[in-house]
Amino acid sequence: MKAIAQHVYGSCEVLELTEIERPSPGPDEVLIRVRAAAVDAGVWHLMTGMPYLLRLMGYGLRAPKVPVRGREVAGVVEAAGAGVTRFRPGDEVFGICEGSFAEYALARPDKLAAKPAGLPLDQAAALPVSGLTALQALRDAGRVRAGQRVLVIGAGGGVGSLAVQLAKAFGAHVTGVCGTGKTDLVRALGADEVVDRGREEITDGRRRYDLVVDTAGNRPLSLLRRALTPRGTLVIVGGEGGGRWLGGTDRVLRAGLLNPFVRHTLRGFMAKELGEDLDVLRRYVEAGELKPVIDRTYDLPRAADAITRQHLGRARGKILLVP
User: Fold this and answer.
1) Helices 158-169 and 128-136 sit at what angle, rounded to 10 degrees?
2) CA 250 to chain centre
């Protein structure tokens, strides 16, 4: 089968479209014929091996432990291991796996869910990582409640565009922060207010929010706290910039150290890959309260272009790769 693989860490030049053996499912795995894979922020970090903390977390010290990139997937079950009872060949599924930038990929059933009814199969690939991140950041880390004022920073991106919709579904008053070219999108997603980050600063202290969800930003904690009510909550979803060792995760660590000493609740956050929460996302889609936003679709040989566009923050929503 064809796949996008790398054997050393580096920029997009290390990626190659290659022929590899089609994998066979183990007893507790399914083989998925990939209809589409999505590009999330983690793809860049796994490709470059930066920050170094990521390598220490088990992804490979000198080279990627898993050579095929991609983790978000949607497709059709081609074969199922002997111990799999939840899915069978022919089922349309979406979820998380290792190596989705390929024609076929292996996945664990507990990290998959049935495709939402009424949603094109390829678009379902935009939901897993970004959708779980948005859902758990709001519901679990942020403990959002109806009537709260919620600020979503990065509202036009993959996680942010889903967080805006989910916050509205929870009954919150939502303000989205995004670049000039994405303000119309964020309004269309249902945001009550939209802030153009190039023209207005949301951390000037004039407006305050019960919950701030910062999706892969780089604002200092001191500035973000200015946007909070006296007992407000800040949830930091990833981050960019920083040094070679910690990258954007340094804000997460500092938030945890500062949290016991302030009235605000400061939480770093990493999503859990739960199949039951994929089912929650499916129900929101089927209820008409959540719809993935697709920026562009690339074919597999143009994976480098797709990853670059996502990393530069140009995508309105999610970018898909199709074999």
Assistant:
1) 50
2) 19
What are the respective helix, strand and coil percentages of the chain, to the nearest 5?
30, 30, 40
Token duo for residue 47: 């490709």
Close Cβ partners of 299 (under 8 Å, ≥ 6 residues apart): 321, 322, 323
Structure tokens at 256: 């945890």
Please, which pLDDT band fits residue 318 given cuts at 50, 70 and 90? very high
- Averaged pLDDT, 292-303: 97
pTM as predicted:
0.95
Dist. CA 178–CA 183, nearest whole Å: 6
- Distance, CA of 121 to CA of 246 (rounded, Å): 36
Which stretch of 100-109, 121-130, 204-213, 224-233 has the lowest confidence by average pLDDT?
Answer: 204-213
Of 320, 323, 319, 317, the residue nearest 157 (C-alpha): 317
198, 173 Cβ separation under 8 angstroms: no
pLDDT of residue 297: 98
| pLDDT in the model for residue 46 | 94
Reading the block at residue 129, the tokens are 């990582």
Structure tokens at 151: 């600020």
Instruction: Give ∠ CA 110-116-120 in degrees, rounded to 5.
Output: 120
Rounded to whole angstroms, what are the CA distances from 132 to 52, 89, 200, 276?
25, 25, 29, 10
Angstrom CA distances, 175 to 8, 156, 157, 190, 266, stand at 41, 12, 14, 9, 19
pLDDT at 247 over 80: no
In this prediction, residue 249 has a pLDDT band, given cuts at 50, 70 and 90, of: confident
Average pLDDT in the 207-226 region? 90
Tell me how far apart the alpha carbons of residues 145 and 24 are, in angstroms, rounded to a whole number. Answer: 45
The residue count for the chain: 323
* Region for residue 132 given its phi and psi (left: phi exceeds 0; alpha: psi -120 to 50; beta: otherwise): alpha
Backbone φ and ψ of 235, nearest 5°: -115, 120
